[in-house]
Write a structure and sequence with these properties.
565 residues, mainly alpha, 4 domains, two-stranded antiparallel sheet, globular
């Protein structure tokens, strides 16, 4: 039911978005939410081509994911609850997309954070619980930053930030708000130093990963920055460019050392988020949005293919057990290959239209050698881990159980995946013609024009070599164990964001418990003091035998009377 509703809504919103784009229209709707004494509280909705197009993509991907989940989660007792959680997740994202107001953005933002926690801990085990807590607490930092920006925005007399972005750009308060918004977006989109929650969130079911990593949770940060981009100062943009380029490089490097199928795809998402944020920091928000849309399609399908493979391999996620799957799962492997090639930016696939444009736009700018190198190396690393994944899963020897039944019998899952494949192939060219009415004029030398293709080829060769010499590669890894662990553990970031943050508070808690709760407070705490006071109070002695004491006091009183007489 939800699948059909979301699909129809998606098509309607796509048409409306194209109409608004062609007519160059923007609608801002205000609903009188409630009236308290003389105060009106309005609910504001922003409808322009960008919000409608993004909503259309989110609804289309979520409709395919829900359809896919019908079979993927078929063995689950609480399947309906899972579907409802996904629907609530999508609705939170919708609220965030259509909000030009910081309060309603916070509602959607917090909804995403809360429901993502519920979905990450869906499989009730220790790993899921710790991953869920890491996800929730990392995102709380961004929530606090948003709350602080809401407090600062009181100075403007309204929380509708859309009206103040350009006109107040030079204002100190607006700059402070933009710094806080960037911090919030960095936590949601898992940029350094908040990156460790993204691979940890892979504890969630695969359909959730498909939705989270394509168009909802992690893209919320990028979308918020696209909306706020007019208010960014040059200093802030340089900081954002540095952090996002480092994230892109770090995740690309980490994915080449990873053996968990879902984590490789998660690190690839992180790399693409770094790319979106860095192009945004260079001042081209439309291009960042274009790459966001195209990436959403092929990343959703990539996770769906991974889910089908994991399903067939009895929930095994280690790519070293896979190999030769193209014989057993031809259609799934075809889709996986197409998505991988689109991710690499192979000419005339959808990813090429956004990625190549992004890189060429970057090359046209006047930047230092660090940015050039890190961009091109990151592109090479993307191709490297994609080819390594392809080799391990499709070309190498089949390393799973000898007795197996691996076949493409899951028709519903295949239909859900097939709904996305045409868009993965054709959406790049289609939307590049639609969104950019004026083509970018890029004038480059032949060497620079060919550099991207050259780096892609080198990256592909490197990934193939890394995968081919499995044994020697593993021996090499053992030789340089410390460095490979450093790379695969995302530059020790999981340690920093877990043990690095909670070790001292936990140790202090232990000391507090030992010294105070079970130590001095045992003697001087509330209960012990009340016991001591009871023992010391003379009045207690009087009240042990009431009648005797009363008569004794009466005799004393009579004696005093007689003595006075």
């Amino acid at each position: 039911m939800y699948f059909m509703v979301f699909l129809y809504l998606s098509l309607m919103l796509l048409g409306a978005s194209l109409y608004l784009l062609i007519m160059n229209l923007t609608y801002i709707l205000e609903f009188n939410f409630m009236m308290l004494n003389s105060t009106n509280i309005y609910f504001v909705v922003l409808l322009d081509w960008m919000s409608l197009l993004f909503m259309s993509f989110v609804l289309f991907i979520s409709s395919m994911v829900i359809f896919y989940s019908e079979e993927y989660m078929a063995g689950d007792i609480y399947k309906n609850r899972f579907i409802l959680l996904v629907v609530m997740f999508v609705l939170s994202m919708m609220l965030l997309i259509i909000s030009p107001n910081l309060i309603s953005i916070l509602l959607g933002w917090d909804g995403l954070g809360l429901i993502s926690y519920c979905l990450v801990i869906y499989y009730q085990n220790l790993k899921s619980f710790s991953a869920g807590m890491l996800t929730a607490l990392s995102n709380r930092i961004g929530d606090v930053a948003l709350l602080m920006s809401i407090a600062w925005m009181l100075n403007f007399g309204s929380w509708n930030f859309i009206f103040y972005l350009e006109i107040m750009k030079g204002d100190y308060i607006m700059q402070l708000i933009s710094y806080l918004v960037v911090l919030a977006a960095m936590t949601k989109s898992a940029q350094i130093p908040f990156s460790s929650w993204l691979p940890a969130a892979m504890a969630a079911p695969t359909p959730v990963s498909s939705l989270v990593h394509s168009s909802t949770l992690v893209t919320a940060g990028v979308y918020l920055l696209i909306r706020f981009n007019f208010s960014f100062s040059s200093n802030l943009m340089m900081i954002l460019l540095f952090i996002s380029s480092m994230t892109m490089f770090m995740s690309g490097l980490g994915a080449n050392f990873e053996f968990d199928l879902k984590k490789i795809i998660a690190l690839s998402t992180l790399s693409q988020l770094g790319l979106m944020m860095s192009i945004l920091a260079l001042g081209e928000y439309k291009l960042a949005f274009f790459h966001l849309l195209i990436h959403a399609l092929f990343k959703a399908l990539l996770f769906m293919c991974a889910g089908n493979i994991i399903h067939n391999l009895f929930n095994c996620q280690d790519i070293r057990y896979m190999g030769g799957l193209v014989k057993h799962l031809p259609l799934t492997c075809t889709y996986l290959n197409i998505c991988n090639l689109s991710l690499c930016g192979l000419p005339f696939m959808s990813g090429f239209y956004s990625k190549d444009l992004v890189v060429e736009f970057m090359s046209m700018n006047y930047l230092n050698i660090y940015i050039y190198l890190i961009f091109y190396i990151s592109i090479g690393l993307t191709v490297s881990y994609s080819f390594r994944l392809t080799y391990y899963s499709m070309i190498g020897n089949f390393n799973f159980m000898s007795l197996h039944i691996i076949q493409e019998s899951s028709m519903i899952m295949l239909k859900g995946m097939s709904g996305l494949i045409l868009f993965v192939v054709f959406s790049g060219s289609m939307f590049s013609w639609m969104l950019f009415s004026t083509p970018y004029f890029i004038c480059m030398t032949f060497f620079m024009k060919m550099l991207t293709l050259f780096v892609i080829l080198i990256g592909g060769w490197l990934g193939y070599e890394l995968a081919k010499f499995k044994l020697s590669y593993q021996l090499l890894t053992l030789k340089f164990l410390s460095s490979s662990l450093f790379m695969s553990m995302m530059w020790n970031m999981p340690y920093l964001s877990t043990l690095g943050v909670n070790y001292l508070p936990l140790y202090m808690g232990k000391l507090y418990l030992k010294i105070f709760d079970q130590g001095w407070l045992e003697y001087y705490g509330g209960q012990q003091m009340s016991k001591n006071l009871k023992m010391l109070t003379l009045m207690q002695l009087f009240s042990i035998n009431h009648l005797k004491i009363y008569l004794l006091l009466l005799i004393f009183w009579l004696m005093f009377l007689l003595l006075n007489i």
